[in-house]
Fold:
Amino acid sequence: MEEITWELFERQVEACRLCPLCQQIRHKVPGQGDRNSPLMLIGEGPGQTEDEEGLAFVGAAGQLLTRMLEAIQLPRERVYICNVVKCRPPHNRVPTPEEAEACRIHLRMQTWLIRPKVIVLLGSTAAKNLLNPEIRITRERGRWTERKGVWMMPTYHPSALLRDESKKPEAWEDMKSLKAKLMELRLYPDIYANGEGS
Ligand code: URA
Structure:
């Protein structure tokens, strides 16, 4: 079997025809960021801006996500960001379970390559696909689960925060909880050096 490498991952995503989503897109959006990051953030799927640019979370929701990370002193370049599906679903609809399942091979390979210590699931599609298909994000956001040594937490999708500002205080609680987890695990020691962050 061919060795699993980033080069193989990129080639596999580009060549992928496992579901029909790729028939209507401009670019595939594999994900980007620090490939040595201990933290991985997983969203739902590319939107229009992401489809145009081939990059994850670069539209309005992505800009909010960048500010949320900065609020806990994390520069966006220090984390890895991707989505459950790598091709934009038409009209930004939620990916079907079949589309998510077809794309899982890519997410698995990506997770294997990064070996994150912490995964944040942005919104219900990511939480349902990676944690529990029955999950209610409003009820279970902010809860930590450990699986095979990886800590996972679902939180609101930044698009949900743009639609409904009243969710922002809970999202901020989740970001603080993320920072606490990163500190507890002694990740990003250069950022959270004195145990307090700055
Ligand atoms: N929403 C997502 O879930 N992912 C993106 O990359 C952009 C918007």
Summary: The first strand starts at residue 32 and ends at 33. The pocket of uracil is lined by residues 43-47, 50, 56-57, 59, 61-62, 83, 159 (CB under 6 Å).
